[in-house]
Amino acid sequence: MVGNSKLCGGEPKLKLRLCPIQASKQKQKTSHPRLTIIIVSVAAFCLLFSSFIIIFYLRRKSRTKSSSALSTISFFSKVSYKSLYQATSGFSPSMLTGSGSFGSVYKGIFGEDENPVAVKVLNLQQKGASKSFITECNALRNIRHRNLVKIFTCCSSMDYNNNDFKALVFEYMFNGSLEKWLHPMTVGNENQSIMSLTLIQRLNIAADVASAINYLHDHCDQSIIHCDLKPSNVLLDKEMIAHIGDFGLARLIANTDCFSESQTSTIGIKGTIGYAPPGKHSTLMKNIHTYGLNLMHALMKTN
């Protein structure tokens, strides 16, 4: 064995070093369990971490819907149910000024020296009423224009029977809707003359509505599509200035140079039959189409 430095293996008594093949096998035997433990540990950690992320995302998503609704409502200074109940004489039929698909509108008076307000009470039994309430709050919270109905406050509370109650409080329009002027309920010749629009008034109303649509489309942080523009949603104040109201079906669209197909294509039919545009019109074209119908209606309709 002298002079043979690379001699390896053999009897353990000879105390020769292990041959390279045997050493590598021995090393593999000891490294395999460690590698397995590391892989299993990393996989378990990744699985737990992924599960945590999924659970966190699902919880946050469910909370976002409710929190966004709450943040929208909290933007307005809320009024109590009791105040609205007293202002409308207990939501008396004598204070009822109109009704729509999602609720009724009452005339409200908070004090003898204060101007009246319009209180829109949502019928929460009607499907889509709650969504309409949030949509209208979102649409009106950051917009200001002389030809849009001004919102004062809102109420999201419980009534005296512990039922959910939601209402919006708007500026009161003394001359009612354009619909009532175009189709007055005549009671004799006297009422016929009172509810008559001159050509100049009709043109002014058309210009007011056009100004409001231009503002909603091109001068808001997010373009707003009304989706239900019709004479009953055009309201007239003391000076016969037109204001667009009822944004319960409105859509908010990102204000970009080029609208994507998903933003401009219709998703189901919204609005009133007879005023919705035929075919697959873009949402921006909906308002333009219905405005054209309203303009033609207002100019051609005679009392």
TrEMBL record:
GO cellular component, as recorded: membrane
GO MF, one annotated term: protein serine/threonine kinase activity
Keywords carried by this UniProt record: Kinase, Leucine-rich repeat, Membrane, Repeat, Serine/threonine-protein kinase, Transferase, Transmembrane, Transmembrane helix
Matches recorded under InterPro entries: Kinase-like_dom_sf, Plant_receptor-like_S/T_kinase, Prot_kinase_dom, Ser/Thr_kinase_AS
Subcellular location: Membrane
Transmembrane segments: 35-58
Keyword Membrane belongs to the record: yes
Top-level lineage group: Eukaryota
Positions of the Protein kinase domain: 91-303
Signal peptide limits: none
Keyword field contains Membrane: yes
Name the UniProt record assigns to this protein: Serine/threonine protein kinase
